[in-house]
Specification:
Distance between the termini: 43 Å
Strand order of the largest sheet: 3-2-1-4-5-6-11
Number of helices: 11
Number of strands: 13
Structural class: alpha/beta
Strand content: 15-25%
Bound molecules: nicotinamide-adenine-dinucleotide, uridine-5'-diphosphate
Order of helices and strands: EHEHEEHHHEHEEHEEEHEEHEHH
Radius of gyration: 19 Å
Largest sheet: 7 strands, parallel
Helix content: 25-40%
């Protein structure tokens, strides 16, 4: 019997990349998306592949399981949720629903089909962290009453759902807390920093640095993140576990802007704009647990990843 891998959020940045990777390795993939932040273009090529099926649906739809042949599902990657601040602040209630009701719905499907489920949580569960770098047992510093709360708090509740289904129903969940990931697969109007900076640099616009640019992030190239998710799904060691997945090189946003200027050889200048409310000041994952459990470390340096990203965006723009 063909085993099916379900990917929710398949028309998004990470979902479409993961789907291509699994189909290329011979797996049968059923993708689900409602296109709230994803693009039809991201699944266009996949639709021509015999091993790829697609259902346009919302993960909160409780009739979803009737549309799927649940007896064949062996793995569920639950990625569906807006992820860019631009999109989750535009669709806060939909974001909350995708991560809470949507996660429970997908856990129910996993339970009914005896499938493993990987939930993509986020570094945002640490809010504006006070501990650096952040280990998985750091409990975070999150504002429940602000524009980022719809994302941060719903991801936290999504993790709670995973815990309860693992504890109560023995669904083999694993949670990836993903830190900023990038490639040219990000839509150019996605609003996240690397797609903004590279698009701006290549189109002669000034690079929009929010605040003074002294806030820090690490950036992980998409291939490294996808490899981590696949490894997490493959091993029993991660069942019932949470793993940070993210880059190792911490840079300020100003340093990132200057690096993009240098690598694109652009004449674009920097433009300083207001810092968004609750924008985390400093963020970097402790990835010791991922290294130990799945033997994973990012392989692509920030400069290498930016060079690939810039080369691809050049073709797209
Ligand atoms: P994305 O916005 O590009 O993709 C998300 C996809 O989910 C989109 O195609 C969207 O249309 C779909 N979606 C949203 N709500 C849905 C719903 N209710 N029903 C069906 N489909 C729905 O985002 P991404 O960067 O690919 O992120 C994928 C996942 O990884 C998200 O859960 C996100 O929170 C998590 N994550 C990503 C990053 C990152 O740096 N890319 C970092 C942390 C966490
Ligand atoms: N940022 C910026 N200019 C932009 C977009 C983002 O300076 O055009 C900053 C943003 O304020 C944050 C960092 O870059 O400090 C990363 O932002 P992004 O939206 O990519 O991800 P976040 O880490 O906020 O989820």
């Amino acid at each position: 019997m063909t085993e099916i891998v379900v990917i929710t959020g398949v028309a998004g940045f990470l979902g479409s990349h993961l789907a291509r990777s699994l189909v290329n390795s011979g797996r049968s993939v059923l993708g689900i998306d409602n296109f709230i932040s994803g693009r039809r273009g991201n699944v266009q090529e996949l639709l021509s592949r015999p091993k790829f099926m697609f259902v346009e649906a919302d993960v909160t739809d409780t009739d979803l399981r009737k549309k799927l042949d649940i007896s064949k599902i062996s793995e569920i990657y639950h990625l569906a949720s807006p992820a860019s601040p631009k999109f989750y602040t535009k669709y806060p209630l939909e974001t909350i629903a995708a991560n809470t009701l949507g996660t429970q719905n997908m856990l129910e499907i996993a339970r009914a089909s005896d499938a493993k489920l990987l939930y993509t949580s986020t570094s945002e569960v640490y809010g504006d962290p006070l501990v650096h770098p952040q280990p998985e047992d750091y409990r975070g510093n999150v504002n429940t009453f602000g524009p980022r709360a719809c994302y941060d708090e719903s991801k936290r509740l999504g993790e709670v759902y995973c815990y309860e289904y693992y504890d109560k129903y023995k669904v083999l969940v694993r949670v990836a807390r993903i830190f900023n990931t990038y490639s040219a697969g990000l839509r150019s109007d996605d609003g996240r920093v690397i797609s903004n900076f590279v698009t701006q640099a290549l189109t002669g616009q000034d690079l929009t640095v929010y605040g003074q640019g002294d806030q820090t992030r690490t950036f992980c190239y998409v291939d490294d993140t996808i490899q981590a998710l696949v490894k997490m799904m493959a091993t029993k060691k991660t069942a019932g576990e949470i793993l940070n997945i993210g880059g190792a090189e911490e840079v300020t946003i100003l340093e990132l802007a200057q690096l993009v200027q240098q690598l694109t050889a652009t004449a674009s200048k920097l433009k300083f704009l207001a810092l968004p409310v609750d924008d985390p000041v400093q963020r970097r994952p402790n990835i010791t647990k991922a290294t130990k459990l799945i033997n994973w470390k990012p392989q692509v340096s920030l400069t290498q990843g930016l060079e690939k990203t810039i080369a691809c965006y050049k073709k797209l723009i």
